[in-house]
Design brief:
The complex is a heterodimer. Chain A is 32% helix and 29% strand. Chain A contains 7 helices and 10 strands. Chain A is globular. The two termini of chain A are 26 Å apart. Chain A has one domain: 3-Layer(aba) Sandwich (Rossmann fold). By secondary structure, chain B is mostly helical. Chain B has one domain. Chain B is built from 9 helices and no strands. Chain B is globular, with a radius of gyration of 18 Å. The chains are: A alpha/beta, B mainly alpha. Chains A and B meet through strand 6 and helix 3 of A and helix 1 and helix 5 of B. The structure holds adenosine-5'-triphosphate and magnesium ion. The site of adenosine-5'-triphosphate has 11 residues of chain A, from helix 1.
Chain lengths: 215, 226
């Protein structure tokens, strides 16, 4: 029996009559991973936002099934985590306050210990009581990982996962990606060779076909 | 379970906006400055003239209306400007966001209106209320109506490109019936008619509020979705 299935059928997006992409289709099952590649402006970020349910496609459908239950579009956020350059956390709050807010809005009964663990995982423990406005760009990127993982999502969507990160941060991200592949579905928008080799499937938006990765 | 968790999620959004407001003073400063400056200008221009209390009832609502316009649009515009709209999409249902913001706007506007009304009663000597129950009910219903109306309008204009100018333009026709009715009811409280004579006005205000909330409820998901 399939635990998780996430599929896209003929997804197309048009911005002001400019067609960005057409007919994107795929089906991902649990433990699958997908890399979305393509030149700048080919629509990687746009596709990821559509998959996350924060942007409507011009055409096409998505289908998310978890343990035999079809998940409605409005409920996607419960099961999915997104890290993206377009994501902004609250500047006027501290790292800890941000996570505390996300935990409460989501109605999670996550313990403080788990938040502390997430923060130490992304190496922000000693800055957790500083305002996000004072964070460096790499620190903000790290906090986004805590944001995306707080509810232990079934599907993890990463847009330019290693941008702004140092070597140690990149290693943490790769570890997170490996773990996601063991617990759910991983989808990454990237042009980084190393990111791509971590994924089983690749969609190249320049040619728009799904192919098995080199791995 | 779902309703219970949405109520606490709504409350969390409200609290976040409250703390955010206390830290950034995004809306509060604009609101207070507006009330204080307009009130001073009005006091200067009245001088020693004898202005009818009926006219002063209208002036009070002009202050309240425009200060609402200057401040409350911030609730959605600030999320849009800072790019945190996507963050909200990723953590909460649309209606949770809407009701959290609505609650915040109502509390903010309520506090502001208490401040404005008290100041107005103290400083504008020509304005004296005879029937206080009518006056207080009018202020409460007016605050609820203005707060609800401006919340949904703020959500609409946050998506538009011409945020600043569009707000009063769009608000005016939507809020006009409300404004006319509260001005009328305030006049009644100044004239000192018995409470029953103002029931008609109250019914209009309550119906207006219900219609506004129902429309917001149906419309918000479409507005919120990109
Ligand atoms: N809100 C928008 N309105 C109009 N056009 C948009 C909008 N967002 C994106 N686009 C256009 O859609 C196209 C795809 O953008 P997108 O950001 O998805 O590309 P990308 O593949 O992620 O690029 P990059 O490699 O630079 O990150 C671009 O041509 C961009 O100009
Ligand atoms: Mg991109």
């Amino acid at each position: 029996m399939n635990l998780i299935s996430f599929s896209a059928e003929n997804i197309a997006k048009t911005f002001n009559r400019r067609k960005i992409f057409n007919d994107i289709s795929f089906t991902m099952k649990e433990f699958n991973s997908l890399a979305i590649t393509g030149r700048n402006g080919s629509g990687k970020s746009t596709l990821l936002k559509i998959l996350a349910g924060v942007l409507s496609p011009t055409k096409g459908e998505m289908n998310l099934v978890i343990e035999g239950r079809v998940i409605k579009k409005e409920e996607y956020f419960v099961h999915l985590g997104l890290v993206s350059p377009y994501l902004q956390l609250y500047d006027e709050f501290t790292g800890w306050e941000n996570l505390d807010f996300f935990r409460k809005v989501r109605g999670l009964d996550t313990a403080d210990e788990y938040l502390a663990e997430l923060l130490s995982r992304v190496n922000l423990s000693d800055r957790k009581n500083d305002f996000v406005r004072t964070y460096s760009s790499g620190m903000k990127q790290r906090l986004k990982y805590a944001f995306a993982l707080i509810h232990r999502p079934v599907i993890l969507l990463l847009d330019e996962p290693t941008s702004n990160l140092d070597d140690e941060g990149i290693a943490t991200v790769y570890q997170i990606m490996e773990e996601q592949k063991k617990s759910g579905i991983l989808i990454v928008a990237t042009n980084d060779k190393e990111d791509i080799t971590m994924c089983e499937y690749v969609i190249d938006l320049n040619i728009q076909t799904l192919k098995k990765g080199e791995k | 379970m779902k309703t219970g968790s949405s109520i606490s999620a709504t409350w969390t959004i409200f609290k976040k906006d409250m703390y955010s407001e206390l830290r950034t003073r995004y809306a509060l400063n604009a609101l207070l400055m507006f009330v204080i400056t307009t009130l001073s200008v009005i006091l200067f221009s009245i001088g020693n003239e004898n202005v009818s209390p009926e006219l002063l009832a209208g002036v009070l609502w002009i202050i309240i209306f425009f200060s609402t316009m200057s401040g409350l649009s911030r609730t959605f515009v600030s999320e849009e400007e800072r790019g945190t709209v996507m963050t909200l999409h990723l953590i909460a249902r649309p209606l949770t966001v809407f009701f959290g913001k609505l609650l915040f706007n109502l509390i903010l506007l309520g506090a502001l209106n208490v401040f404005t009304v008290v100041l107005y009663l103290l400083l504008v000597t020509g304005f004296s209320v005879v029937n206080y129950p009518i006056f207080i009910i009018t202020i409460i219903l007016g605050t609820l109506g203005l707060g609800s109306g401006s919340t949904i309008i703020a959500a609409i204009i946050a998506k538009a490109n011409t945020k600043g100018t569009l707000y009063p333009v769009l608000s005016f026709p939507i809020l006009l019936p409300l404004l006319l009715t509260v001005i009328n009811a305030t006049k009644l409280s100044v004239e000192g008619v018995p409470l029953v004579d103002a029931i008609g006005e109250f019914q209009v205000l309550i119906s207006y509020l219900i219609v506004l909330l129902a429309i917001s409820y149906l419309l918000f998901e479409y507005i919120w979705k990109e």
